[in-house]
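Re: lysine structure - here you go.
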Amino acid sequence: MSKQRLQANEQGHLVLGGVDATRLAQEYGTPLVVYDVAAIRRQIQEFRAAFTRSGLRYQISYASKAFATVAMYQVIDEEGLHADVVSGGELYTALQAGFPVRDLSFHGNNKSLAELEMAVENHVGVIVLDNFHEIELLKRVLVDRNASCDVMLRVTPGITAHTHRYTQTGQVDSKFGFDVDSGQATRALQKVLAIPQMNVIGLHAHIGSQIFDVTGFDLLVKKLMTISAQWRDRLGFTPRILNLGGGFGIAYTATDDPLTPADFIQPIAARLRQLADRYQLPLPEVWIEPGRAIVGPAGYNLYTVGSRKDIPDLTTYLSVDGGMGDNIRPALYQAKYAAVLANKMNEPTHETVHLTGKYCESGDILIDQLALSRNEPGDLIAVLDTGAYGYSMASNYNRNPRPAVVFVEDGQAKVVVRRETYADLVRLDVRYE
Ligand SMILES: Cc1ncc(COP(=O)(O)O)c(C=O)c1O
Ligand SMILES: N[C@@H](CCCC[NH3+])C(=O)O
């Protein structure tokens, strides 16, 4: 989100989804996580429009690890998308939201027996098989229940996406999926094809996250179509669906230059058509799993300015009432964010500060160099584009309660996750006596 696209009212206050951000802070307190729901819907429409123009058969599956709450699954359902879950907890949340289970895919590199049982008993649409151990576990679950299910095979395509090392997942040296080059994926397929309770509907791969160019996806399509042709020739099997995963990057700062959904989808469609033609394969249905691109730009973290430390001739630390507990990404990935003084939007830049949190860690820095207008304690800071992997990776470090989450749309605000209380923090504690 570029700062220019932000809206301010006559008082110079940031306006989110038609609601004054200072009103949100007064009413619900800070730190506060705010989602502009219309922005989520717009982004989904952009993906849909790009697919419609491509002429491909497609499915968009929201990667709910980016932000998974009951209200979020409701919005995804309203928009008619599929979703993927990676744990019993995400599955449980989706079930609580009444999300159609047939439209869920279940991922994970170490799904437990209990999680597989939960998925099968609730009739989850697709289980994405990740490793040989899981094939055996799932077989047991299905045989015991005289059940069957649709599966995809997650493969490791041997592609290194140009992104942070911690968010690369497609390279050979990865914990996820069956390796293609060593023949592991082919062995896995042979094994699964011999299990009558499993119906292989497609191939899945995810090369990484926060990706800004289409090269990795192009290589991925080539790899998946090549292996599809080999499998057709050797095993008489052709995957009906190619799931290309997520990873579509967003702009966190002015220097980020992300592609639009169409920039990704058009070349992917062209390459698929070319290879389907070359290998005489049917054009596969394409699934994608965006998480960040759907919720990232729609999210804002609101904080109140507190203490300040000026170190003469050196620097200034400006502290807010949240930090790494509600946004671990700067500490974990050196992620960069932009922020504004939400109650003084029209004032000129006055200084550059380290925007720090309140946690007992020197690394608890939300923004390393933030240009701000003149400010004082009580002012409101809005960190932008925090919607993906912010609240979903939040913790109670230092026994700080996690913030509330508010959805704003058409001038209305609604709490969709209540703020944790101190009582919540000790809810699971048991006295030792
Ligand atoms: C299998 C899978 N699909 C989709 C995603 C979503 O990625 P992103 O939020 O970058 O779109 C992830 C996370 O990186 C993932 O592991
Ligand atoms: N959590 C990461 C991305 C990895 C997502 C899951 N594979 C982030 O904040 O960017």
